[in-house]
């Protein structure tokens, strides 16, 4: 297939089949600057890290992945557009001409429906449309940090590739931009700023953030950037014992939510990369224990109850689409992605989204004053409330005391919500004053996690 120059490439971007506009209405930041809205309705971001989707899967496998994640309640998938200069799809071929960011490999006269006759960008067009059909937004990383490391992404090349992707996808309804690529931005502040500014100048329709390296947040360097609509942090993959970094916070990812939300002007925030299920503690340390479903739940509940607008989940095999017997990209996966896509944690994430959206979303705020004599680390009880409800999450299931009177009503109705199953067990009705001791079901231990839900007894809401 003949390669055409970049200037003609933008004009030849395929419109593709009609996207499911009704399933992926435009995303906007809410008036209070704390959450997102989709078509004017509250939007809880439940994301998955499908980082190497474009580099590993053909169309049949892509359809299976998107269909499965949509059925599990996910509405965002985070994807690398250009992981390396040699980024290629197994059927559609390479994304760039000779690894040059100023020369996207766009080919004319092909059939975007026939294998071998569509290029990488035709394939991404198709993926975008299929995601929309499943009600999924694609959070696209235009250029991963590898290309900046080798000085392929610079202040000269960033405007070219930035303009290309922005022009091509600015009219798609289900795009979110993740500037950055798992890097500390201070290593190339100007380059990342140029990329973000370029994309935003062309595409004002879609939201944008910055995906930083581990134990960092976009707010540290770009909170006031005109192109940054919401913050994203990567709480990272290290345990308490392994975290010896300057800003060490161990597994306490809720600290990033609290820090981001304390800044002005207010902007929503989210943990875009917590510890992945089935990945060794510390990433490459194969001898270490692996994060499990309970850990994945804990990261989600801690960050959201601290005020995050949603949460992104990750699984080791799925994020790199590893197939047993094949060569892994990194981090010692043991299961094929088709098996891991149904990992326990993956199937349990939507219960948090369902619970939060079952109560008034806009007036919810984090409020640790609900918990009396709180613990630390795994024993810390996370708490949030609206005007007529409160939620308190215990990872270890230890008894804890609640300061009553923080929500409306003379009496409150209490239930235990199971993060593993999404089922609720009534506890009883209590006077909404003084202090009240609550004892979660089962034996106290890490992973015996429960959420206490308190509702104004005069409301009809129950879960």
TrEMBL record:
Membrane-traversing stretches: none
Signal peptide from the UniProt entry: 1-20
Region feature Disordered, mapped onto this chain: 257-276
Keyword Ribosomal protein assigned: no
Pfam families according to UniProt: Apiosidase (PF13204), Collagen_bind_2 (PF12904)
Protein's name according to its UniProt entry: DUF4038 domain-containing protein
Domain Apiosidase-like catalytic: 31-362
Source organism per UniProt: Sandarakinorhabdus fusca
Keywords of this entry: Signal
Lineage of the organism: Bacteria, Pseudomonadati, Pseudomonadota, Alphaproteobacteria, Sphingomonadales
Putative collagen-binding domain residues: 365-455
């Amino acid at each position: 297939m003949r390669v055409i120059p970049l200037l003609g490439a933008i004009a030849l971007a395929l419109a593709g089949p009609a996207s499911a506009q009704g399933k992926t209405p435009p995303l906007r930041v809410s008036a209070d600057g704390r959450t997102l809205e989709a078509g004017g309705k509250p939007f809880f971001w439940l994301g998955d890290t499908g980082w190497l989707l474009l580099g590993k899967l053909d169309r049949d496998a892509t359809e299976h992945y998107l269909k499965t994640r949509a059925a599990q309640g996910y509405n965002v998938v985070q994807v690398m557009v250009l992981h390396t200069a040699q980024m290629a799809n197994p059927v559609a071929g390479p994304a760039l001409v000779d690894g040059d960011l100023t020369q996207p490999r766009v080919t004319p006269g092909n059939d975007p429906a026939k294998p071998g006759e569509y290029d990488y960008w035709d394939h991404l067009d198709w993926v975008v449309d299929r995601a929309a059909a499943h009600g999924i937004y694609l959070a696209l990383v235009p250029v991963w940090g590898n290309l900046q490391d080798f000085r392929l992404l610079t202040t000269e090349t960033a405007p070219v590739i930035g303009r290309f992707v922005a022009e091509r996808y600015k009219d798609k309804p289900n795009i979110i931009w993740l500037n950055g690529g798992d890097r500390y931005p201070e290593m190339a502040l100007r380059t990342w700023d140029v990329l973000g500014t370029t994309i935003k100048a062309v595409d004002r329709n879609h939201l944008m953030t910055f995906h930083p390296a581990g134990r960092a947040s976009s707010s540290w360097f770009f909170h006031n950037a005109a192109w940054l609509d919401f913050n994203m942090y990567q709480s990272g993959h290290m345990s308490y014992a392994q975290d010896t970094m300057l800003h060490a916070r161990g597994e306490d990812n809720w600290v990033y939510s609290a820090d981001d939300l304390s800044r002005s002007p207010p902007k929503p925030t989210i943990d875009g990369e917590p510890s992945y299920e089935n990945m060794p503690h510390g990433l490459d340390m194969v001898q270490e224990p692996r994060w499990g479903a309970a850990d994945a739940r804990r990261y989600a509940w801690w960050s959201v109850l601290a005020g995050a607008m949603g949460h992104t989940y990750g699984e080791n095999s799925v994020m790199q689409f590893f197939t047993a017997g094949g060569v892994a990209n990194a981090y010692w996966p043991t299961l094929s992605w088709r098996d891991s896509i149904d990992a326990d944690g993956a199937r349990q994430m939507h219960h948090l989204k369902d619970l939060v959206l079952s109560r008034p979303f806009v007036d919810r705020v984090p409020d640790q004053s609900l918990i009396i004599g709180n613990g630390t680390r795994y024993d810390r009880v996370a708490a949030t409330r609206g005007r007529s409800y409160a939620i308190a999450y215990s990872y270890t299931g230890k008894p804890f005391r609640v300061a009553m009177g923080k929500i409306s009503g003379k009496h409150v109705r209490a239930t235990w919500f199971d993060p593993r199953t999404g089922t609720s067990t009534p506890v009883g009705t209590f006077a909404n004053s003084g202090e009240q001791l609550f004892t979660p079901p089962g034996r106290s231990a890490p992973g015996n996690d429960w959420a206490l839900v308190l509702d104004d007894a005069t409301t009809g809401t129950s879960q």
